[in-house]
From TrEMBL:
<dbReference type="Pfam" id="PF13715">
    <property type="entry name" value="CarbopepD_reg_2"/>
</dbReference>
<keyword id="KW-0732">Signal</keyword>
<keyword id="KW-0645">Protease</keyword>
<dbReference type="InterPro" id="IPR008969">
    <property type="entry name" value="CarboxyPept-like_regulatory"/>
</dbReference>
<keyword id="KW-0121">Carboxypeptidase</keyword>
<dbReference type="GO" id="GO:0004180">
    <property type="term" value="F:carboxypeptidase activity"/>
</dbReference>
<protein>
    <submittedName>
        <fullName>Carboxypeptidase-like protein</fullName>
    </submittedName>
</protein>
<keyword id="KW-0378">Hydrolase</keyword>
<feature type="signal peptide">
    <location>
        <begin position="1"/>
        <end position="18"/>
    </location>
</feature>
Amino acid sequence: MRNFLLIFFTIFSCVVHAQNPTKIIKGTVFIDSIPTQDVHIINKKLTLGAISNENGQFEILAEENNILLISHLNLEYKEITVSKENIKAKNIVIYVDSKTHMLDEVVLEKQKNILEIDQDILANAPVVNAKTLKLPYANVKPKDDKTVKIESGITIGLSGLVNALNGNNKKKKLLKKLKVEDQNIANIRKHYTDGFFIRQLKIKEEHINSFLESCISKGIINLYRKDKVLELTSVLIENSKHSPYLLENEHIRLTQK
């Protein structure tokens, strides 16, 4: 009897399976007619899933009338029923519309300050100035610096014009340039140390700065700023060969004086 029941259930299962065969079907997902990657396809009945590749293609186990859940970040949620034709052809094509979200219009308004909200505050506000605060410079009149408009349309103060005519601006620029050069010379000397100039270039210690000043026209400051140490060293060595500040040329330099 037990063997008979086993044979009966086996035959029944085969008949049911024959009526609804489970097959691997291939499919393609399109978003707005474009094959789409990373779409999730889930068979609700078999609780199996698949993900489409870069060509929108996937494979999944399915039976006739199974429901496939289609989901993706940029897709509308959709359910597809597997038809008899899909099982027979072992293929299914799924078209889904892209998801769109319409946001409510947002209007940003300028925040009002307290004076716009309460006009009485402005009307009754006390006068605040140098006189009411009794500051020491309350009665001092500002210096009238008259201006002159030249042909180019630029307006300059008379004091600035006078300084320019007297050469004060040029002097200031020259002093600033010399100050920058002195600082750069000091930096170069510190970088190489006095031993380099004395032992390698044969420059007397008291003439190192003078030697570096004579090399400014060779572009040593720009080379130092750009950290071109090899080129800077080459320039210093080359200029030291015929420099009047060499120990061996000391008598020539004194004669020229």
